[in-house]
Design brief:
779 residues; mainly beta; 10 helices; globular
Length: 779
């Protein structure tokens, strides 16, 4: 089949979409409600009778230079490879991986493209039995950097926005029998200037491709918005949109377990409200979801049904306090990239489930989707498992800070980009606004400026004012903050001043959110305990999200010379080295030691000693009782166990309870500690903490009257006191021997050398110049 290719869309600044459908909610319709009810969430996308997942084997042709792409392409004459979709070129051998933190991969003047831009042609054949009176929608959940879509010889449309859903109506082009779908993906587009995130830069169709095979009249969108009533109940405002001829069609809505429903004639837009006097609210500690069902019927017979999980919640900001269902919640969060050591950007439902299950085990309650909207599967799991989500738009222009642009604010202060910013924010909002987990919208990451973001903020507040808006980079502009103040890596001292309302007055009117803190690279994260204490101590501090969840790396398999590689290991022209290996967990999701430090700091129970064997346990949860938490304790003296026991806690959220332990007198001059382990009902450890009850006194000076003697020869100094001796080598300045009075040698042939330098950590790089200037690197 022949196609006249669209060879210039990817580099035309005036074009960022063609024939793309308006954004809408993600859902999977079924024609049989019993089947849908019996289908687990993980399988709904893949077993619907109305949706076909086109993922799997596709034909593929790679062009290193898009200029080699013919103006007219004949698929009958092409030689194709075969690849799996979803996948990326860098993980399937077509291009080497490239890791960059801040810069763009190319140095072209903005918004121009390099002369050489690689391109990939994807082809998928699929069969349709019937096209008369049917509607067909083609949905790409993620593709980088852009899509030109063709079907049966025709150009369907164009899309930018790698992590946003791109959807096209192909009803007029689909035919009975075999259909040929052709997709041209360019490595870069003008939209790439908005996608300069800290990650491996990958290309291709990296999320599922869906084909909706629907009746001519079908449900296209639904939004269910809960609003708390003054009496404590909720009003649910539901808007459903139907496309097609609505004569003889009806719409029904019902919620399992609640005596409320709606039934009426279908029309293009159906709006109604349901008052629900008694519902259990959703929160991350107790994620109660109600299952709603939307049914579209023709003459009383079911045509489509949609399952819509609903969580009732209220998010408010009162002065400088962030409230969720009226409670002053704290974000015990992480930043989550879509990254897999084998498949790169491609993450399956099972991968998200593994991540979020491990997060729960580590006491994480919040996720920032760094730095783009995730596959809907992550949000579905966050609803079900309980996480507060900061849903972030696919916008970052960090590369503008570097040559040849040299202006961090360049893109965001250029109002020509406003339609592109708005497109990405709108598609995030309309796709994700039904999710209970979405607690804040984020306008992107490290894009500088505010002019383009101002337009996005105004849009979000006009359309969905119930959810606050976050954007960290605006702190570097006169606007300074949207609904919450945000910074990255704020030092402890400044954070405490902000908490005390003693920092710059600009920080005093809104809640403060650390969207990134405690960089987890190397042996990090450090300083976590201090951050955790500050978050709990001050109401205006919302908490934050640690950078970041998982190490990024390329897994070459067991037996490879290098099992994992990162920036610079693949012949990259420019890269940012091992800065991608900065997670709380390894690429395969084994926890680093830092993950366990986080687990401890994010613990829901905190103990304090009050003396006389009395201990106070505080439940820092905002909603969930400590009932059922089992505490095991162990007392030790000088490291030797002396006593142990166990008891149960039952204090309510934000409350404390005192427990008396009958402990023997501590021996003098001993170190005494007590360890508390908090276990859930299944015996799994929630967290542990150790409290020092007594410390052995160590004198800073030798007792009066202690006699020291010094002798020397040509090679050594010897110091003797009370029968012990220490020997220092004159040439080495090393302590070469330390003998106790009874003659026992403590160093056993080793030596101790005074040394003010050590092997540098990644986070020591900023100290190198100071070490050299002071000469410490030579000691």
């Amino acid at each position: 089949m022949k196609y006249r290719m669209q060879r210039g869309n990817y580099k035309d600044f005036e074009i960022y979409e063609q024939n793309k459908r308006a954004p809408r909610a993600y859902f999977i319709p079924y024609g049989d409600e019993e089947v849908l009810r019996a289908t687990p969430m993980a399988r709904q996308r893949y077993t619907s009778d109305l949706v076909r997942v086109l993922s799997g084997a596709w034909d593929f042709r790679y062009y290193a230079d898009a200029r080699e792409l013919p103006k007219e392409l004949d698929t009958e004459e092409m030689v194709f490879d075969q690849v799996q979709v979803p996948s990326t070129w860098q993980r399937t051998g077509y291009e080497p991986p490239v890791y960059l933190n801040c810069p763009y991969e190319f140095e072209s003047p903005m918004p121009e493209m390099p002369e050489q831009v690689p391109c990939g042609i994807y082809r998928k054949l699929f069969t349709l039995e019937e096209t008369h009176n049917r509607s067909f929608l083609l949905s790409f959940l993620g593709a980088a950097a852009c899509l030109d879509v063709f079907l049966n010889g025709y150009h369907v449309g164009y899309s930018e926005g790698a992590h946003n859903t791109a959807e096209f109506d192909i009803s007029g082009m689909a035919a009975p029998g075999e259909n040929e779908l052709l997709v041209a993906v360019h490595k870069w587009s003008t939209g790439t200037y908005l996608e300069c995130q800290d990650m491996f830069r990958e290309s291709g169709i990296f999320r599922d491709v869906l084909l909706y095979d629907l009746p001519k009249t079908y449900l296209t969108d639904v939004f269910a918005k809960p609003q708390r009533l003054p009496d404590g109940g909720y009003r649910l405002q539901v808007t459903a949109e139907v496309l097609g001829e609505c004569g003889g069609w009806s719409l029904e809505f019902a919620i399992d377990g609640l005596e409320a429903s709606f039934s009426g004639a279908a029309k293009e837009r159906v709006s109604f409200t349901l008052d629900l006097p008694e519902v259990i609210e959703w929160n991350a500690e107790q994620p109660k979801l109600y299952q709603a069902w939307l049914r579209l019927k023709k003459d009383g017979a079911l045509s489509q049904t949609v399952n819509l999980p609903i969580g009732f919640k209220t998010v408010q900001i009162k002065k400088n306090i962030f409230l969720f269902n009226g409670k002053k919640i704290k974000f015990k969060g992480v930043n989550h990239h879509d990254t897999d050591p084998v498949t790169g950007y491609c993450m399956r439902y099972e991968d998200y489930l593994k991540d979020l299950t491990l997060m729960k085990a580590l006491n994480v309650n919040a996720i920032r989707t760094a730095h783009y909207p995730p596959d809907p599967h992550l949000l579905m799991l966050a609803d079900e498992m309980g996480f507060y989500v900061v849903d972030e738009a696919d916008i970052e222009t960090h590369g503008a800070e570097f040559p040849p642009h040299n202006d961090f604010h360049l893109v965001s202060h250029d109002k020509r980009w406003i339609p592109r910013y708005l497109d990405r924010v709108k598609r995030m909002l309309f796709r994700d606004r039904n999710h209970a987990c979405v607690t804040m919208w984020s306008l992107g990451n490290e894009a500088g400026g505010h002019h383009c973001q101002d337009a996005c903020y105004a849009f979000l507040h006009a359309v969905h004012p119930e959810i606050p808006v976050h954007y960290e980079s605006v702190v570097h502009t006169p606007v300074y903050a949207y609904d919450v103040y945000s910074e990255m890596y704020t030092p402890h001292a400044k954070l405490e001043r902000i908490g005390k309302q003693k920092e710059d007055e600009r920080f005093r009117g809104k809640p403060f959110f650390l969207c990134e803190y405690a960089h987890a690279m190397g042996v990090g994260p450090g300083g976590l305990a201090e951050y955790g204490d500050l978050f709990l101590a001050y109401e205006t501090l919302m908490g934050g999200c640690i950078w970041e969840w998982a190490d990024h790396a390329v897994d070459h398999g067991e037996g490879a010379a290098l099992r994992y590689t990162y920036g610079g290991d693949h012949g990259e022209r420019k890269h940012d080295g091992n800065f991608c290996v900065d997670g709380l967990v390894y690429p395969d999701r084994r926890p680093h030691t830092g993950a366990y430090a986080m687990k401890n700091v994010y613990r829901p129970i905190r103990a304090a000693a009050k003396g006389g064997g009395r201990f106070v346990f505080t439940n820092t949860n905002r909603f969930k009782s400590a009932y059922g938490i089992h505490v095991e304790w162990l007392l030790d003296e000088n490291g030797a166990p002396k006593a142990s026991g166990s008891f149960a806690l039952a204090c309510e959220a934000e409350q404390s309870e005192e427990v008396q332990l009958w402990l023997d007198e501590f021996a003098p001059q001993t170190d005494v500690h007590i360890l508390f382990r908090y276990l859930d009902g299944a015996g799994e450890e929630i967290a542990a903490e150790q409290i020092t009850l007594q410390e052995c006194y160590v004198p800073e000076e030798l007792p009066a009257g202690t006699q020291l003697s010094l002798t020397e020869d040509a090679e050594q100094y010897i110091i003797r006191t009370q029968g012990a001796s220490l020997r220092f080598g004159k040439a080495s300045a090393a302590l070469e021997s330390y003998q106790q009075p009874e003659g026992q040698e403590l160093l056993c042939g080793a030596s101790l050398v005074p040394n003010l330098l050590r092997a540098k950590l990644d986070n020591d790089k900023c100290l190198e110049r100071r070490l050299e200037e002071t000469g410490l690197d030579q000691m």
